[in-house]
Amino acid sequence: MSTSAPETQRPGAAPAGAGRARRRALLTVSGLSAYYGELRALFDVGFQVTSGEVLSIIGANGAGKSTLLKSIVGMMNRGKAAHIEGVIDFRGRRLDRLTTEKVVEAGVTLVPEGRRLFARLSVEDNLLAGAFLPRCRQSAPKKLKEVYDLFPRLRERRDQVVSQMSGGEQQMVAIGRALMSSPEIILFDELSLGLAPAVVDDVYRNVKRINERGATCIVIEQDMRRAMAVASHVLVMLEGRVVLEGKPADLSDAEVTAAYFGSDVGRAHP
Amino acid sequence: MNFDEALYWTFIDIANGFLTGTMIGGYYAIISIGLALTFGVMRLVNLAHGDMLIVAAYLASVILALVPISPFASLIVIAPLMFGIGYFLQRGLLNRVSVQSMEAKGLPPSFGLMSPILVTFGLGIFVAHGLLEIFSSDARQIRNSLAFTAIRLSDDLNISLLRLIFFVIALAILVALQLFLRRTHVGRAIRAASDDAQIAPLMGISTPHVYGVALGISLAVAGTAGVMIGMLRSFQPFDGPQFLLIAFGVVIIGGLGSIVGSLVGGVLLGITQVLAGTYFGPSAQLVAGYMLILVVLAFRPQGLFAR
């Protein structure tokens, strides 16, 4: 997909020789269906994400975008309340039967919709909570410094309780907290929800920077224009299905709009 | 008795009320912290809390009958043992009836609110009867050389050395617990899970494990309290509920889920009881304690240190 993105620096990350010729898929989702009780929310969803890219998933409310991200991080494995079928493969490892904490340990994490910070904890405690995994504890001080370098404002407010902060600052904490576990893939659910447009621009600049530092990003966004601008690859969802997929340059606005609203144009199953 | 003398004795009574009450408050806090902690972390109302205190008292009496060591030294065994019991109780039993597992079984989440209460209620009965079966209903006590030692502050003012030691231990446990919750990774994970149990797993935090640790700590502190109970007075298998009531009182006064609140609640309850006992006789102690709880519930139902 995108060729300009840098390789991840993680030791033992990509198999030898895989980088040059054709990037191997980092994450492969195939035949994914998701259910809330009896209610089916995803229908045979399939796509691939290669290392270093930014995948934008766009679609209207209720298209199944959030459910898709929750499925990837194991938040849909809740017995009779919610479950998934299908295969989610990350570096040859099946994520679809893992608990959320095991998925995070494997290197995939989610910045949840509405930020969902630990409201009674300080900024720094929220960030350090993100470094709970045994493999992250040793490097937590170094990682904390990186996050503070990325978001200097958080360093100034490290002792503040997060519930007293503005939406934009809270979003920084949420993103920083996800970075603390050194993920290879970060899923962002509705980053712009409830934020002023200028703040959203800022948030997306940070997504770009995080991506440039080596993390693969999957972004859910309702704003089509913004989603296309940030992405190296776009997925349009409608009623629980992927209806359009491609590089932003290869897709016309009309095509995407049609897929978004569900006219017949461009309806295709990957 | 002239006026000066009356004033002096009033002063002594009040000073004694505050001193002894504060000391007793530390002991009350240790009895209650576990209940406050598990409620704060996983909204668990552990009705077996009092019975677990008595279990620890019996364990200590058994250990001390086998090995002649100081009752305080028995805590080296009791605290880890009670931690283990708590951890496995949570993972093996209480996690199975939580809101999340009720949802996973396709049952309404409200089942998950009621079930742990019923389970701990049953557990308390089971534990008390188990103790009766093993130890009979004879009252036991943990013998110790300090029970009647007092420190003289003036001719008319003493404090019990044992109560002073308990108060110091209570403060030490309180500080240690606060440091643990604020400064360690596991402590932070406990606070995170208590704040948002659905999101904590995204930090790599296993909530079943963290809940296990929380009940483990709760019972380790309860174990310490149990040994204290055994050193202060005699105990029998069915004494648990009366300590559960003290713990509830303290937690209501201090604020549900607050550890500092447990100390303040314990001290307030202790002072109220001692002063009431001094002025209105021993039978007034209990009434005064409940009056205090009523007043707090009426004017500040969330408790003094609610989070």
Describe the overall structure.
- The complex is a heterodimer of chains A (270) and B (307).
- In chain A, helix 3 (123-129) packs parallel to helix 7 (167-179).
- In chain A, 32% of the residues lie in helices and 24% in strands.
- Chain A is built from ten helices and ten strands.
- Chain B has 307 residues and is an all-alpha fold.
- Chain B is 72% helix and 3% strand.
- The model of chain B has no long low-confidence stretch (mean pLDDT 94).
- Classes of the chains: A alpha/beta (270), B mainly alpha (307).
- Chain A binds chain B through residues 37, 73-75, 78-81, 99-101, 104-105, 109-110, 112, 116, 118-121, 125-126, 128-133, 136-137, 177-178, 181, and chain B through 100-101, 103-106, 182, 185, 188-189, 191-192, 195-196, 198-206, 307.
What descriptors fit this protein?
heterodimer, A: 270 residues, alpha/beta, six-stranded mixed β-sheet, four-stranded antiparallel β-sheet, 10 helices, 10 strands, globular, disordered C terminus, B: 307 residues, mainly alpha, 11 helices, 2 strands
Shape of chain A: globular
> Topology as H/E string of chain B?
HHHHHEEHHHHHH
Beta percentage of chain B is: under 5%
Class computed from helices, strands and strand pairing of chain B: mainly alpha
Number of helices of chain A: 10
Identify the most extensive interface between protein chains: A-B, 34 and 24 residues
Layout of helices and strands:
The complex is a heterodimer of chains A (about 270) and B (about 300).
Chain A: E1 25-36, E2 39-50, E3 54-58, H1 65-72, E4 82-90, E5 93-94, H2 100-106, E6 108-111, H3 123-129, H4 134-137, H5 140-150, H6 152-156, H7 167-179, E7 185-188, H8 197-212, E8 216-221, H9 224-230, E9 233-238, E10 241-246, H10 253-261
Helix pairs in contact in A: 3-7
Chain B: H1 3-42, H2 49-66, H3 75-92, H4 99-104, H5 110-135, E1 150-154, E2 157-160, H6 161-183, H7 185-195, H8 207-232, H9 240-254, H10 259-280, H11 284-299
Antiparallel strand pairs in B: 1-2
Helix pairs in contact in B: 1-6, 1-8, 1-9, 1-10, 2-5, 2-8, 2-9, 3-8, 6-7, 7-8, 9-10, 9-11, 10-11
